[in-house]
């Protein structure tokens, strides 16, 4: 038990990597890490998950891309990114020193694209691949790879041979059977799972009498989704043997503790950092204070207790 003279141990082991604390910057909300330097150094966090990368550069979606809701944020970015070649050749050398745990988030719209992109990034100096299977599969009418267990497993199975780094698969909450998808990914070779991605949602401009987003629906994140994300994290963590990284609406250190109690090994924080640029290191500090006040010496004491 920690005393006033001993700080709680926030370190986390994730797929053979030691993180200084369980708070990872979520993909899509942190850029590549350089953007946050005016506010704090990313090394204060457990790790960084990069902006989503695809095999080829993408301009992203047109029209409105962000829309605030009463208790959250909707986004329709469209995976705007410079492509994996530009990331490996130009961006990675600049950001490698920002964090001891650099996670590259990789997506695609066809399995062949996933395989080539993951192979290129995994061969570079990154610590882990986060496979984004929430991308729409253009050969299945736009249905996301992560919505069905068979489709999810096919992507994981295809990229596993070219991925020499730990492979974490990011799950979609819009899946027909989330636990089934999680189990399929584990069986196909995933080393860890992260969840949840954004919820499919709709915003309507009643004055213009049209949907806010050009694509009509968009992804909902932020505090509105926390209770559902927490329940989904617990469901998956109880079903699989591999580590789970939870996310969805985290704003405070106590929110992090709740995800750990639900079974998460670590967490990712996204929207909170868009609302308040210095939110993530503050959350780390709040978690340490919470643990000290509650007499929690390390995260293993509370992991999965609910």
How are the elements arranged and paired?
Layout: E1 12-14, E2 17-19, E3 23-25, E4 47-49, E5 66-69, E6 72-75, H1 84-95, E7 102-106, H2 111-122, E8 128-132, H3 149-159, E9 167-170, H4 178-188, E10 192-195, E11 199-202, E12 204-205, E13 210-211, E14 217-221, H5 226-239, E15 244-247, H6 253-261, E16 266-269, H7 271-275, H8 279-294
Parallel strand pairs: 3-4, 3-16, 4-7, 7-8, 8-9, 9-10, 10-15, 15-16
Antiparallel strand pairs: 1-2, 5-6, 6-14, 11-14, 12-13
Helix pairs in contact: 2-3, 3-4, 4-5, 6-8
Describe the structure in brief.
The chain is α/β, with parallel strands linked by helices and 306 residues long. It is built from 8 helices and 16 strands.
Shape: globular
Helix content: 25-40%
How much of the sequence lies in strands comes to 15-25%
Total number of strands = 16
Which stretches of 5+ consecutive residues score pLDDT under 50? none
Task: Report the top-level CATH class.
Answer: Alpha Beta
Report the structural category: alpha/beta
Backbone CA Rg? 18 Å
Name given to the CATH architecture? Alpha-Beta Barrel
Please supply descriptive tags for the structure shown above.
306 residues; alpha/beta; TIM Barrel; eight-stranded parallel barrel; four-stranded antiparallel β-sheet; globular
Please give a structural write-up.
- With 306 residues, the protein is of the alpha/beta class.
- The protein has a single domain (12-60, 82-199, 223-301), classed as Alpha-Beta Barrel (TIM Barrel), CATH 3.20.20.
- It has helices spanning 84-95, 111-122, 149-159, 178-188, 226-239, 253-261, 271-275, 279-294, and strands spanning 12-14, 17-19, 23-25, 47-49, 66-69, 72-75, 102-106, 128-132, 167-170, 192-195, 199-202, 204-205, 210-211, 217-221, 244-247, 266-269.
- An 8-stranded parallel beta barrel has the order 3-4-7-8-9-10-15-16, surrounded by 5 helices. Strands 5-6-14-11 form a 4-stranded antiparallel β-sheet, with no helix packed on it.
- Helix 3 (149-159) runs parallel beside helix 4.
- The model has no long low-confidence stretch (mean pLDDT 95).
